[in-house]
Amino acid sequence: MRRAIAGAALCLMLVGCTSDDVSTAEPVSVASPLSQTDTSALLLPTPYEDREFVTPGWSLEPLHADGVYLAATPGEAALEFTAVDEFGEVLWTAERPLSCSGFTLTVDAEGRSLAILTDLTSSSTAVAQTTASAYDLHTGERVWGPVDVPGPYRGPGAVFAYAPKSVMGESGPRLALDPTTGETAYDEETGRATVVGEYSGTLLVAEDRELIATDANGEELWRSEGAERWVPSVPGTYEHARLDGRYALVATASGGASLIELATGEIKGEGLRDAAFDIASGTLVMHGGSGLTAVDADGNELWQMTVGEDVEIAGLGDVFLYLLEGGSLRVHNVITGAHAQAYPEGDGRIVYPVAVTDSGAALLLDGGAYLLATAPRGIGSP
């Protein structure tokens, strides 16, 4: 089920903007709270039983950074983006052409969180040109752009692709934008390296088995050599949110992925299908295909578990690990690996968290619909 949702979102994100669409206006400030959602028909995990929920109405997978969620849903004439903070308040909205569904979040050199949206401009030849613009994630104010990009959003992060060089190619060379200025940070057409992805201001490029990281100022952070050649990564469902911005899953030539600590370049695991991080306990879970491994904040192994090929990590948060197996959900204690009772007795549609933040806000999945469990309001909360 999770893969089907990911595939639908990715298909929407990889199509380019077409000339049938009309370029749209600047984001509009809203500053209005969403109405609380009735959850009486739902069976909620115990950490969220007493929480307030809102339903932003997103169709595309929401992205999260710095206390704000951003996603979109197709309307009758435009793709409608909505930025919602962790307390359920709509901060701003924006419209884009229906086919311009590529969007991402990043961080500039000043530490400011930005949303990058794609759009169209028309030239003297009436050929539509895809562009990208960055907006302050909290206010919707334009920071830079529009800048021309060679083709559709590719990701992870501020990465776009040229048209494929052959009809058989999935995409052509990749180009990464500088999150601070919108200028080109790296272009595969003119450089020797491969753009792996951009992760909250950290750009990863690869030269064979060497992975190189630079920060939002263009300064090199580290180099890390792996056992295999690194290849371009494609963002997976909830991947960056579930790794709390601390790690990146980077694909390798064998088809697996390595888990990289973004601050240091340390390789935490190899040959992986997926990974997730529990903020509450500091536990990292790595899915190696036939098994799961959990390590604590000091890198000590907590447990290992053999799982079937159809098992997927559905979510991880508040010390509960949620696994999907053949359409069924099972829950484990992430510290011990033992089966856990995460739901109260009763009837209702089972929902589960797919991404949890350090403020306590959580994104939950109800079939194909997204629910936001808002962050508890404490001292200093608005």
Would you give an account of this structure?
The chain is mainly beta. The protein has a single domain (2-373), classed as 7 Propeller (Methylamine Dehydrogenase, Chain H). Helix content is 4%, strand content 45%. It is built from two helices and 32 strands. The strands form nine sheets. It has a five-stranded antiparallel β-sheet, with no helix packed on it. Strands 3-32-31-30 form a four-stranded antiparallel β-sheet, with no helix packed on it. The two termini are 36 Å apart. The relative contact order is 0.13. Mean pLDDT is 88; it is low at 1-15.
Short overview:
This protein has helices at 2-14, 239-242, and strands at 28-33, 42-43, 53-54, 63-65, 68-74, 79-85, 89-96, 103-107, 113-122, 128-136, 142-148, 159-161, 174-177, 184-187, 194-199, 202-207, 210-214, 220-225, 247-251, 257-261, 267-272, 274-278, 283-287, 291-295, 301-306, 311-317, 320-325, 328-333, 349-350, 352-356, 362-366, 369-373.
Set out the fold topology.
Layout: H1 2-14, E1 28-33, E2 42-43, E3 53-54, E4 63-65, E5 68-74, E6 79-85, E7 89-96, E8 103-107, E9 113-122, E10 128-136, E11 142-148, E12 159-161, E13 174-177, E14 184-187, E15 194-199, E16 202-207, E17 210-214, E18 220-225, H2 239-242, E19 247-251, E20 257-261, E21 267-272, E22 274-278, E23 283-287, E24 291-295, E25 301-306, E26 311-317, E27 320-325, E28 328-333, E29 349-350, E30 352-356, E31 362-366, E32 369-373
Parallel strand pairs: 2-29
Antiparallel strand pairs: 1-7, 3-32, 4-5, 5-6, 6-7, 8-9, 9-10, 10-11, 12-13, 13-14, 15-16, 16-17, 17-18, 19-20, 20-21, 22-23, 23-24, 24-25, 26-27, 27-28, 30-31, 31-32
